[in-house]
Structures are given as C-alpha cells and as structure tokens.
Amino acid sequence: MQMTTLLREPAKRKLLLSAGLSWLFDAMDVGIVSFVAAALAAEWKLGPQQIGFLAAINSTGMAVGAALAGAYADRFGRRAVLVATLLIFSVASGLSAFATGFAMLCALRFVTGFGLGGELPVASTLVSESFPARDRGSAVVLLESFWAAGWIAAALISFFVIPVYGWRVAFLIGAIPAIYALYIRRAVQDSPRFKGERKLPFRTRFAAVWSAPYRTSTVALWVLWFFVVFSYYGMFLWLPTVMVLKGFSLVKSFSYVLIMTLAQLPGYFTAAYFIEKYGRKFVLVTYLLLTAASALWFASAVSEGMLIAAGLCLSFFNLGAWGAMYAYTPELYPTAIRSTGAGFAAAFGRIGGILGPYLVGYLVARAYSVTAVFGIFFAAIVIAALAVLLFGRETKGTDPDGLATGQPS
C-alpha cells in the first residue's frame, strides 16, 4: 500500500499525527457526552426529551461552527482556524464540569459544539491539500481513524471515571486539548496550495459552491451529510441509553459500548485501503448499505451475543463510511472554495445531528420500540447511499483544481 511508504516522510507523518490528535480530542468530547447523558438522566432526573435536547444543542453549535470555520479558513488559513476552534471547544468542555443546572450545561455544550464542528472540516481540508492525489483519500480516512481512538478514550474514561468520580471530572479531562492547541500553532503549517491561492470574498465563494459546475455535487453532498449525521448521532449518542432500555445496568452498558467502539478502527483501516483501490463511491455506497443492515440487526437483537455482534458491525461499517465521506468532501471543490464548500456541507449535516438525537428522545418518551426507531435510521442511511450512487461524482485520482491525474499534484 502506497500510504505506508508515504508516511515515512517525516513532514507528512507529523501533519497527520498533529491533526489526528486534535480529531481524537473532538471525538473524546462527543463520546463523553453520550456517556454523561446516561449518568445525568439518573442524577438530575432528566427525561428522554431533555437528553435528546442536550445532544441537539451540541449539534446546533457544531452546525454554526462548521459553517463559520469553513468560511474563515478560506480567508485566514487552515492552521489559524484549527487552533482557534480547538481552544474554543476544549475551554468550554472544561467549564461544563462546573455547570450548576441543565440550562447552564446546554449553553456550554453549544459553545463546545461550535468549536468541535469548526475543527473537523478544517482539519480534513488541510490534510487533503497536503497529500498527493494518489494518497489523499487514504490520508483523510486515516485522519478519521483518530475518531475511533477518541471514542475508545471516552469509553475508558466513562467506564473508569464516571462511576467512581462522577461526570464532572470527565468534562474536566476534556479541557486538556487547550494545552495541545499551543503545540499545533507551532507544529502545523498551511498547505502550499492555500498559501499560493488568491483569497476570494465570502459571497463569491458561496456562489461558486452552487454554480453550475458544482451544483449537482453540492446537492448530493448535502443529502449525504444530512442523513449520515442524522443517523450517526441518533444511534451512537443513544447507545448507552438504548442498552439500559434493553435491560442492562449503566456500568454494563458502558462496557458493551466500549467493545462495540473497538470495531471502528478496522472499519477505518479497511476503508482507507479500499478507497484508493476501488474509489470513493464504492466505499461510501457499500459501507452505508451495510450500516443500514447492521442497524436493523442491532434493533432486533435479543441475546447479548447478537447485540454485541450487531453493534460491532454497526460501528465497523458506519465509521468506515464516515472516513470515506470526509475524504470525498474536500475533493469536490478547488482550493479557493474548498473549505467553504466542506464547511457548509458539514453544517447542513449537523442539522441532521440536531434532529436525530431529539427524535429518538421524542419517540422513546412515547414508548416507541427500539426497532421502530432504528427503522427510521435504516431508511435515512439508504437515502444517503442512493444520493452518492445516483448523483455523486467519482474523485479518485483527480486534481480538484482542474487536472485529472493520478500523479502527485
């Protein structure tokens, strides 16, 4: 695999590791929220709709952050915005430990979400621009694999910390990235492509995203992002709570979710291999359809073994699809509008992240079955797969700035 050779380059390895660790911290924070929600439900006597609202307000911040950070990154540079968003979410996460009530926690989670949502598309754009065409897909999927490591860290923190020291300590741990942001500021440089690009006004960039050459791709991309984020946050932020609803204790549900989370890593690694071998559309469509099938299997599972097996498949295919989506998104636009296009696609997707968790809370509160809830996510994931299959443009081996080539650009 060419990626193995490429990562021997110290500069490329340093960039991927530096951006990857910021991605890991993002995932750790999101994961901790899903575990904290289950603990808060017991401590603060929160109902399902309040838990759903907490997740939704976090996603609202992510939507705003993705749109603004994407726009600013095309104006002021990827590195500057990456550092700023990293600081915002880590400081707000640490302050969440001192929340005195539900309203205060929601306000802090909005600010945390703003930083989280802004950091992700900017980091993936930076990595995509910094690798040659033949390897950039694998590089971005490998960047996404740090998300799994972050979720594993969140599961470990939640399993060992929350039952003993409480959820506030878990949020305090989330403030650690503030220190790391200072390192990022010195270690990471903007890509040569961005440095040499003429900076366009925001209105021009946004209009270009919707201009004739990119309109179909933008529509397909926004549909893909909306339904993938809708289903992911609807399912995964509720996993510990769903396990409790299926009759498992809080601690046991945490341990089962940790086991399921481990399957994300091979999901990413296989996607990183297949994405350069068979293309972006193949990986996205295949992994999304298998995610949809896994969702139905998980919802209908009755035994512990079947539940864990279905959860492993759900994690494997869903996160592999996420990696492919992040690799695919920046490749659809040229450098001058790339971060704007990626940021607004992610922002529209975060609307799905708002609706998904809240919908689950609404349906659970009205005694809908887990099977019925996951049936909705099955349909959503199939729609996302069809959008890519029918309207998506293959970007494997192409230069987003105009030259179709498999050679380093």
- Through-space gap between termini: 19 Å
Level of helix content?
over 70%
DSSP strand tally: 0
Q: How would you characterize the largest beta sheet? A: none
Strand portion: under 5%
What is the SS-derived class? Answer: mainly alpha
> Gyration radius, to the nearest Å?
20 Å
Q: Per the principal axes of the C-alpha atoms, what is the gross shape?
A: globular
Order of helices and strands: HHHHHHHHHHHHHHHHHHH
User: With helices defined by DSSP (H or I, 4 residues minimum), what is the helix count?
Assistant: 19
Task: List the quaternary state of the chains.
Answer: single chain
Mean pLDDT: 85
Which spans of ≥5 residues are poorly predicted at pLDDT below 50?
A: 403-409
Please supply descriptive tags for the structure shown above:
mainly alpha; disordered C terminus; single chain; 409 residues; 80% helix; globular; 19 helices
Protein topology:
Layout: H1 2-6, H2 10-43, H3 48-76, H4 78-95, H5 102-130, H6 136-160, H7 162-165, H8 167-173, H9 177-187, H10 192-195, H11 202-209, H12 215-236, H13 239-245, H14 250-262, H15 264-277, H16 280-300, H17 304-328, H18 335-365, H19 370-391
